[in-house]
What we know:
The structure is a single chain. The chain contains five helices and two strands, in the order αββαααα. It has 159 residues and is mainly alpha-helical. Helix 4 (90-126) packs across helix 5.
Amino acid sequence: MARARVKLARILNESKRRAALKKRRLALIKSLQTLCVLCKVKACMIVCDGLNDRSTDNVMVWPSRKEVKTMVANFNSVPEQKQSKKNVTHEKFLENMLVNEKSKLQALKKKNDQMEIEEILHKLHSDPTSIDPMSGKLSQAYFYIEELIKMIEEKESSS
C-alpha cells in the first residue's frame, strides 16, 4: 500500500518535529553516502537545527568537521568563475527552455507545412480542378517541389 502524501507544513509538536528532523537527517546522510559511493564524488553536508543561536550544538556536519572544513576550503580556493561555471539561475533555465520549445515549434510548423503541401499535391494528382489556382497554395507546392529537386540534385552530385 502506498504511503500517504506528507503535508508540507511546520510540525507544531516539538517532540514530533525533533524526531522527524532526526529521521530525515539520517535518510539524507544515507542518500549522500550512496551518491558519494556510486558517483565517486566528494560531498559534505551541514545541517542546522533552525535555532537562531550561533552555538555549534545545533549544527550537524557530515562526514566530519575536519573533512567538511577541508572540502569548503578547497571549494573556496577555486576561482569564482569556475565555481559557478555550471550554475543556472531560474531565469537562465527558463530562457533555455523557451529557446528549446521555440525550436521544437519551428520544426513542427515546418513539418505541418510540408504535410499540407503534400496533401495539396495528392489532391492535384487525383483531381486537378479541386484546387483554386488563385489560393496561393499552388505557388507553395511549386516552391516545395523546387526544394525537393535541389535536394535530389545535391544527393546525386555528392555520390
